[in-house]
Structure formats: C-alpha cells, structure tokens
C-alpha cells in the first residue's frame, strides 16, 4: 500500500503540532508506523491522502454510528450553517434536544450540554461534590473519563496504551482525592467506601468499559455499587460517553437495567460534532448554576450546528429502533466469524462483546479488568493491527480500545474483516 502522502504529511505535522496529532492515540506511537492522514470518509469507509480505502472500525471513536457523511445529518448541518454557526444565546433547538434525550434515557430530569466527553465527566464530578459537600471520588483502574486532572489516575485509553503511570502536571493534591479499585471487584469498592465513610462524593464507572478493550460488567458488580451508593449517600455516575445511544436507545442504564444518578454523554450524541452532556435526577442537577452555585459554563455549549447534528441523528435512532438492532446483529456476525478463525489459528484469545462493542485480547485467561487486559499479549495485537491495516481494515491502534462498529458496514465488509483476520493470523503467528 502506498502511503507516501501520509508520510509527508506526518513529517510536516510534527513541525507544528505536538507529535503531529491533536489527540495522542492517533499518532500510532505504540503500534509504530505512520498514522494515516484522512482525506474523506463515506459510510463505512475511510480514504487516506493517497486514496487508499479502509473499512473503518473506529468511527471517529464512536460517534459515526450510522456511518460517515450520513446524508440527513449532513443536510441538517448545511441548512443550519446559513443561519450562523453560533449565537451564545438560548435557542428552541436546545430545548428540543434536551426533551428528545429525556424521552430516550432514564433518570435524566435536567441535562446540560457541553462540548466534549471530558467536560461532561469533569462537570458531573463537580456537581456530585457540590451536591454532597464531599471531596473524594472512586474511579476504576483502566476506565477513561477524559483528560480532566481528577481522572488521570490509573486511566485507560491512551494513558494505558503509553503506560503513563503518573501524569506530570496533575498535582498530588488532586490525585489524592481520586481513589481507585479494580473494575468488577465489588469487595474492593465496599472496603474503600468503608475506609472513607461519609467522604466519598461519587463513584464513576464506564458501565460497559471500552478503554481497556471492551470489558463487560460481571453480574452483581454494578448492582452492588448501586446499593453501596444508596447506603452511603454517594452519587453514582454512569459515564455513558461510549455506551450512550449505542448499547440501547436508553444506553447502559436500559441495557443493564440499573439506575444512575448522573449520566454523562458524548460521541453519538453529537453525530461527530463536538458535543457532550451531563444530566441526572432533578434534586442533584438543581445545584448547577444558575439554579445553584456549582458553576459550569461554555461559550459554544448548545452550539446550533452541533445541536442540529445530534438532534437529527438521535431522532433517527429513536424513530427507527431497528437500526441499533441491525448494528448489534452485524457485531454478533463479526464475533462469530472472528471466533472461528481465531479458534482455527490455535492462538489464545478472548473476545469480549456486548451489543455493538467488541474487542480482541490475545489472552489465555478471561479479561475482566485492567490487570488481565494488560497481561494479554499486546505485542501480538500490534502485529495484528498492522497486518489488518495492510488488508484495508482500520482497527483502533491499541488493545486498550473497544472497536466501534457502524451500521453502514455491509456483510461483505464483515466477511472481508474475518478473512483478513484469518490471513493476518497466518502471517504473524
Ligand atoms: N468517557 C469515556 C468513556 C470515553 O471513552 C471518552 C473518550 N474516549 C471520554 C469520556 C472523553 O471524551 P472526549 O474525548 O470527548 O473528551
């Protein structure tokens, strides 16, 4: 595959942008090689600057759930753009967006729009602290909630990919208020809450984790945390930035049948525009300014282009619930096909899968938390990634990421991916 234009662009980018990228994992630093510079995308395909076509399993890390350049969304953005790209004043569209979300997801009485998943999670924590008058939070090792200081402790995604133990610039003062447990370890949560009784404002979790590969909550884990939160007055935050509007219309809360107190959103909610949101039960969200004194604001929050994009996509998902079902079926088909070729290869592997979240760990033991994800053969994953890329399949460049399927994928795309996996395994094992 000729990627000479991407190579030139990468050299040029590094002169002006740290590491040549505006978000670290894009640099392919951990897998090696040259990141592909994308020229355009349509449906399930990315086209790089040398016009190579790839089947896209990143989907902009989640948002493009119905495929790239999805026509109703493109049209809605174009129509709005002529009326200005931002007002910094309230619009009816923001009300419609809030009402639509409330009609789709449980436990959201009030919701505030922001511009990223990071902002949503950062604000949710502030609300929980303001509401409870407590300082400490519990997060889970390998979960990623964005790059706000409080979350960069034992974080997943790029922090895990680059094996950054302590992030310089995050003060010890902030980090001491972030307590961590292993994902799926309810006993550890119980112990930690007991040790810090009355001091914990919030427990934040990715209900289905996607930032250490895909990891499924074991039965009783989230239910148990719900009980602990109720008993000790702790705010239970579901970070649904990845899960929301993907696992079900009502997200992980609906899919798993568990109620959260605050829920954060990102990715799909903005259809590829910079959008996040945090919402929750009225008595908690009432602390948010200007109702209460928990200050939170944004020049571009509720931006009309971003709102119309998200509103259009969410409306379609709501009106045509078969779309998410189709996507789940495609993911299950892919899972079965990958299972067959991986089994045939004889290499130890684990596929974790729920709905349209899926990932492969080259592991001979179940992958249920960060430690088990980190002890998989991630060197083999790097080889697999490149072998797949050479066959026109663009996977996340790290075993510490979930794959993101989109509904524009055809059966032929999935079959190609399965065949490419069989060929890749032959090449790398
Ligand atoms: N939470 C989760 C679960 C995420 O996966 C991410 C991003 N991958 C974030 C929060 C942060 O979102 P953003 O990158 O939009 O700031």
Automatic annotation (TrEMBL):
Q: Name one GO cellular component term.
A: cytoplasm
Query: For this protein, what is the EC number?
Result: 5.4.3.8
Judging by the UniProt lineage, the source's domain of life is: Bacteria
Q: What is the predominant subcellular site recorded for this chain? A: cytoplasm
Arranged from A to Z, the UniProt key words for this protein are: Cytoplasm, Isomerase, Porphyrin biosynthesis, Pyridoxal phosphate
Pfam families, per this entry? Answer: Aminotran_3
Names of required cofactors: pyridoxal 5'-phosphate
Known pathway: Porphyrin-containing compound metabolism; protoporphyrin-IX biosynthesis; 5-aminolevulinate from L-glutamyl-tRNA(Glu): step 2/2
Q: Which GO terms describe its biological process?
A: protoporphyrinogen IX biosynthetic process
- EC top class, in one word? isomerase
Similarity-based family: Belongs to the class-III pyridoxal-phosphate-dependent aminotransferase family. HemL subfamily.
Indicate the quaternary assembly: Homodimer.
What name does this protein carry? Answer: Glutamate-1-semialdehyde 2,1-aminomutase
State the organism named in the record: Panacibacter microcysteis
- Gene designation: hemL
């Amino acid at each position: 595959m000729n990627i000479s234009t991407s190579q030139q662009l990468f050299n040029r980018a590094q002169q002006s942008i740290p590491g040549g990228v505006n978000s670290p994992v894009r640099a392919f630093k951990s897998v090696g090689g040259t990141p592909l510079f994308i020229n355009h995308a349509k449906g399930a395909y990315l086209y790089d600057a040398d016009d190579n076509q790839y089947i896209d399993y990143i989907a902009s890390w989640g948002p493009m759930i119905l495929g790239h350049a999805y026509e109703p969304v493109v049209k809605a953005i174009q129509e709005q753009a002529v009326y200005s790209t931002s007002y910094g004043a309230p619009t009816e569209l923001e009300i419609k967006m809030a009402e639509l979300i409330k009609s789709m997801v449980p436990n959201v009485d009030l919701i505030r729009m922001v511009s990223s998943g990071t902002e949503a999670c950062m604000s949710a924590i502030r609300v929980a602290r303001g509401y409870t008058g407590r300082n400490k939070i519990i997060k889970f090792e390998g979960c990623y909630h964005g790059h706000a200081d409080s979350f960069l402790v034992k974080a997943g995604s790029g922090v895990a990919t680059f094996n950054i133990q302590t992030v310089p610039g995050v003060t010890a003062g902030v980090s001491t208020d972030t307590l961590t447990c292993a994902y799926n370890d309810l006993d550890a949560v119980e112990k930690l809450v007991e040790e810090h009784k009355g001091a914990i404002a919030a427990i934040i979790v990715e209900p289905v984790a996607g930032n250490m590969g895909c990891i499924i909550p074991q039965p009783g884990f989230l239910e148990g945390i719900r009980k602990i939160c109720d008993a000790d007055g702790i705010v239970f935050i579901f970070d649904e930035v990845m899960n929301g509007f993907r696992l079900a219309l009502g997200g992980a809360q609906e899919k798993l049948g568990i109620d959260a107190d605050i829920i954060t959103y990102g990715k799909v909610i903005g259809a590829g525009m910079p959008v996040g949101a945090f919402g929750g039960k009225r008595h908690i969200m009432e602390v948010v300014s200007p109702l209460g004194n928990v200050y939170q604001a944004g020049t571009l929050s509720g931006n009309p282009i971003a709102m119309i994009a998200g509103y259009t996509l969410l409306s379609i998902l709501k009106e045509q619930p078969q779309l998410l079902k189709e996507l789940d079926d495609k993911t299950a088909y892919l899972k079965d096909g990958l299972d067959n070729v991986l089994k045939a290869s004889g290499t130890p592997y684990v596929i974790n899968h729920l709905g349209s979240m899926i990932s492969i760990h080259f592991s001979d033991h179940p992958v249920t938390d960060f430690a088990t994800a980190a002890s998989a053969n991630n060197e083999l994953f790097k080889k697999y990634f490149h072998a797949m890329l050479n066959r026109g399949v663009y996977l996340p460049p790290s075993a510490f990421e979930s794959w993101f399927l989109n509904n524009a994928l055809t059966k032929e795309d999935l079959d190609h991916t399965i065949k490419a996996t069989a060929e890749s395994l032959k090449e790398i094992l």
